[in-house]
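A reminder from the course coordinator: this example appears on the midterm review sheet, so study it carefully.

Given structure:
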């Protein structure tokens, strides 16, 4: 789908283009999962070459950030669907050419409907594609900050659940299984966020460079510098969250090991506690004829008492030494 945004009545209105002509005063062309006809129409209108989905997926920097004539091509990997169980990385291309912005995407990052909805209410008459690009990038950075804040809050809840001593009647095995699952999902989300921030940092550095024929305005450079600082700070925070998740993972595995050791210790103590009674029972179960205790009237109850006492004494000794 191809949507052309045109300034009208103090706002930037989006007009879907389905086989018809593109308005000549369009400021922003948004190609959403474009067809071949959409690509051809945008190329003829803006005088640029629209990258294919395969070209957008290339990871080398020279294929993502480059200048072709008067057009500046920038492709970034953005985190999409952070609030869903299946977040994904989405490649989005931004093309600045002769005051117009062309975006190519195969998904719906939250920044796009947010910016288009705000501009549809009110925007300055001097709006250009460069201004729209700055608004989009600021919305993307804000969204990344919101995602990291949410992840940080979730990590705090996981931490409290791990180290909370009062677990009630919750099954330890199920609890640790759920915690490990949550840590794994958050680690994957943080990894995506860090990748997205690194991609944004490269894009902002490229956008702020002085290039003949494709330079941005002074106000835009100031905004780019501010966003670069924000992205750098968010990257540091994402690294901190990643380190904390690794600590929580190690702590959870350590607690699982302690639970297993406690179970093994119980079996070891039981074997030691039952060893003396077993010895006594085995001695008096040999059935030899010449055993003095066989003719003793109180031999049986005394043997039972001896087995009980010999089992209690090791348990009391272990408790006294605080091995239990």
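Designed residues:
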């Amino acid at each position: 789908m191809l949507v052309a945004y045109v300034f009208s009545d103090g706002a930037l209105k989006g007009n879907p283009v389905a086989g018809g002509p593109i308005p000549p005063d369009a400021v922003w062309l948004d190609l959403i999962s474009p067809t071949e006809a959409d690509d051809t129409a945008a190329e003829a209108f803006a005088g640029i070459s629209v990258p294919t989905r395969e070209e957008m997926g290339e990871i080398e920097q020279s294929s993502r950030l480059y200048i072709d004539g008067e057009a500046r091509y920038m492709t970034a990997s953005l985190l999409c669907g952070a609030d869903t169980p299946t977040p994904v990385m989405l490649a989005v291309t931004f093309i600045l050419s002769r005051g117009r912005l062309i975006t190519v995407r195969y998904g719906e990052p939250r920044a796009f409907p947010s910016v288009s909805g705000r501009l549809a209410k009110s925007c300055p008459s001097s709006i250009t594609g460069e201004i729209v690009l700055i608004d989009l990038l600021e919305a993307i950075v804000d969204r990344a900050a919101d995602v990291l804040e949410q992840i940080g809050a979730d990590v705090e809840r996981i931490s409290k659940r791990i180290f909370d001593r009062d677990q009630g009647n919750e099954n330890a095995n199920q609890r640790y299984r759920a915690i490990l699952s949550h840590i794994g999902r958050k680690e994957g989300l943080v990894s995506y966020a860090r990748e997205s921030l690194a991609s944004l940092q490269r894009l902002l550095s490229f956008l702020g460079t002085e290039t003949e024929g494709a330079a941005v305005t002074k106000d835009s450079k100031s905004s780019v510098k501010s966003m670069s600082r924000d992205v750098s700070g968010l990257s540091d925070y994402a690294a901190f969250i990643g380190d904390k998740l690794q600590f929580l993972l190690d702590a959870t595995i350590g607690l699982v090991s302690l639970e297993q050791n406690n179970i093994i210790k119980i079996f070891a103590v039981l074997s030691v506690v039952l060893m003396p009674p077993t010895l006594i029972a085995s001695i008096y179960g040999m059935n030899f004829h010449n055993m003095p205790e066989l003719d003793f009237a109180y031999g049986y109850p005394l043997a039972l008492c001896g087995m009980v006492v010999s089992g209690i004494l090791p348990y009391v000794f272990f408790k006294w030494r605080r091995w239990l």
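Helices lie at 36-46, 53-56, 61-64, 111-119, 129-163, 172-207, 218-283, 299-320. Residues 84 and 189 are 11 Å apart (CA to CA).
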